[in-house]
Amino acid sequence: MRTETPWSTLPARDHLLAGAGGAAGAPVLDVVVPVYNEEKDLEPCVLRLHEHLARTFPYAFRITVADNASTDRTPEVAERLARSLPGVRSFRLEEKGRGRALRTVWTHSDAPVLAYMDVDLSTDLNALLPLVAPLISGHSDLAIGSRLARSSRVVRGTKREFISRAYNIILRSSLAARFSDAQCGFKAIRREVAQRLLPMVEDTGWFFDTEMLVLAERAGLRIHEVPVDWVDDPDSTVHIVRTATEDLKGVWRVGRALAVGALPLDRLARPFGDDPRDRAIGGVPGGLARQLVGFCVVGALSTLFYLALYSLFRLGAGPQLANGAALLVSAVANTAANRRLTFGVRGRGGAVRHQAQGLVVFAIGLALTSGSLAALGAASGSPSHSTELAVLIAANLAATVLRFLLFRAWVFPDRERGNAAPASEPAATFPGTDPENPAPAPAPAVPFPAADPANPVREPAVPAPHATETTHDLRNAR
Q1: Do 329 and 221 fall within a single domain?
Q2: Which of 470, 465, 460, 476 is nearest to 25 (CA)?
Q3: Quick check: 132 and 142 in contact, CB under 8 A?
Q4: Which of 61, 235, 414, 437 is most buried by its number of CB atoms within 10 A?
Q5: Please, is 40 exposed, middle or buried when counting C-beta atoms within 10 Å of its C-beta (0-12, 13-18, 19+)?
Q6: Do 457 and 400 sit in the same domain of this protein?
Q7: Pick from 73, 50, 60: which is nearest to 18 by CA?
Q8: What is the mean pLDDT of residues 411-429?
Q9: CA–CA dist 82, 68 (Å, integer)
Q10: What CATH number should be reported for the domain holding residue 180?
Q11: Which reaction does it catalyse (predicted)?
């Protein structure tokens, strides 16, 4: 059974059962096929995909054609497929952009697992079930097909191979991305994750995939990769130079936002832990283990930084002055690092107050270390430099324990423990960006039309929708 969690965290992942749709008759999987002027390839794609899912997929499914501003006969083909095939729906948007199409359809879908694939079906469909299985089981939050995995089999030209690998190197070097293939048109996401993650994604074009994955990875969400067999479409209409330029602009924008902490990624955190046995553990403060690890890492680096500064300042000053200067500089850096990395405080709000409180903690540490040096001087008169360092290390260890306690309880108190949703109220779906003034939860997803009764095995029999309901105009649903 799902447990209640604070408004700032995602609920624990649950295994999805066969009837786990969000509304009566809703499918477990919604596969979106974004298209623009694909009147030739759309029908063979949907027929092949529908046949494969009906034959191999063990859950109820839906195929959604997301037509984003096509000017040819694509809308007519999509409507015809929606009328003739059970479990096929058509959406019409009046603006271009693959990211815009995916965001719109995924936001309004009632299926608990959302996926998409390119209309050319370059990816072998046998990878579809392995792609969504970790999401259905509750193991992962997102899943991507990878053409760059060792066991993948790919047929494409040298130019596209070079561009793909060069782009992957750029992502790894600039955004520290660890996933192997950002732009393979074969991805899936759990709906509760999409509801919180998509509002943070700004791009509406081809960079949408990369931005979504980078933010998810930085937030600590679990991304599952599936090696795929992939055959390049020689008739692809993607403009490589323009797409690459827009991608590089996106990399710069996302990198800058991450550097200044402008994104509330902490609201994508999962509770500890997803295992029901872990949820029964009581008396453990939330995030304590992670904070201890982060504080120890920051503390170790700060200590090395402090000792280097002390040795440098000691060349031209006495031990007390060198200790005070080194401790002051390292304390400012330590507070900033712990604020961002250990306690997850992002943005500039409260930074000055945090530094002022950090200086109070610094004063306590200064008293401990200075007192230790004074006691050493009184005891031995003229101690060696190595003896000074050893005494300072011991004093700093004691000051470090006190610093962590003060940081956790006073400087960066855990407000989530006081803001946990009551047991009788569900947690908010996607709060606002200000943790002290969360925005109201978004409206529930608008369900798709009911399934066609001609497919009783895949979807429950309900009255068939009117023909005019097979296509939905989402011009105002962006």
Answers
A1: no
A2: 460
A3: no
A4: 61
A5: middle
A6: no
A7: 60
A8: 48
A9: 16
A10: 3.90.550.10
A11: a di-trans,poly-cis-dolichyl phosphate + UDP-alpha-D-glucose = a di-trans,poly-cis-dolichyl beta-D-glucosyl phosphate + UDP
Paired tokens of 212: 């979504």
Domain of 374 in residue numbering reads as 288-413
Size of the chain in residues: 478
The candidate with the shortest Cα–Cα distance to 99, out of 228, 250, 218, 229, is 250
User: Residue 155: is its pLDDT beyond 50?
Assistant: yes
Looking up tokens 């530094």, which residue turns up? Answer: 355
Reference 141, options 213, 185, 190; nearest CA is 190
- Give dist(CA 117, CA 65) in Å, integer: 10
Contacts for 327 with CB less than 8 Å, ≥ 6 apart: 306, 362, 365, 366, 369
pTM of the entire predicted model: 0.60
207: which 2 tokens?
């960079």
Question: 235 and 363 in one domain?
Answer: no
